[in-house]
Write a structure and sequence with these properties.
Length: 143
C-alpha cells in the first residue's frame, strides 16, 4: 500500500476539536498572527473521521500528513497493539512516527473563518456549513 495521502503545510497547527462520542478530530493550521487582514483568516482544517487513537502535541509546527506504509503500520502495531479494521495511520509531522492519528477517513480544506470558529466539517448546522464553504473544494481520503 503506498504512503498516501500527502499534505504539506508550513502553518502552525493546533488540535482544536476532539469528540470522543462522535469520534472525530480537527487539527487546524493558522496563518501567522501578524497576518491580520480582518475578522476572518484562511485556515487549513484537517478533519479525521472515525478516530481510534491520537498521539500528538496540542500545538505543532508545520505538518506533513502522510499515510503509514505497510512496514510503518506493522511497527506501530507492535508498539501500541492491533489497529481496528479499516483504520488508517496518518503521520502528522515530518520525520516523526510519534505524532499520528488512527482514523477511518481524512478530509482537508481551507476555510475563511474567525479565530476560534467551529470547523464546518464538525458542525451539525447545515446553514453554518453553507455560510462557510471550503475555499477550492474539499479533499477526501478514505482507506
Amino acid at each position: 500500500m503506498p504512503a498516501e495521502p500527502y499534505v504539506t503545510d508550513r502553518r502552525q497547527f493546533s488540535l482544536v476539536d476532539y469528540r470522543h462520542g462522535h469520534t472525530h478530530a480537527v487539527i487546524r493550521g493558522f496563518p501567522p498572527m501578524d497576518d491580520d487582514e480582518g475578522p476572518s483568516h484562511r485556515v487549513l482544517d484537517l478533519f479525521f473521521a472515525g478516530v481510534e487513537r491520537i498521539s500528538c502535541w496540542k500545538d505543532m509546527g508545520p505538518v506533513q500528513v502522510r499515510r503509514a506504509d505497510d512496514s510503518e503500520r506493522a511497527d506501530l502495531e507492535r508498539r501500541i497493539g492491533a489497529i481496528g479494521t479499516g483504520g488508517e495511520v496518518f503521520f502528522l509531522e515530518p520525520d516523526s512516527v510519534e505524532s499520528y492519528v488512527v482514523a477511518m477517513r481524512l478530509y482537508w480544506a481551507e476555510f475563511d473563518l474567525p479565530y476560534g470558529a467551529v470547523s464546518p466539517f464538525a458542525s451539525g448546522d447545515p446553514e453554518y456549513r453553507e455560510a462557510n464553504p471550503a475555499v477550492g473544494g474539499v479533499v477526501k481520503h478514505s482507506g
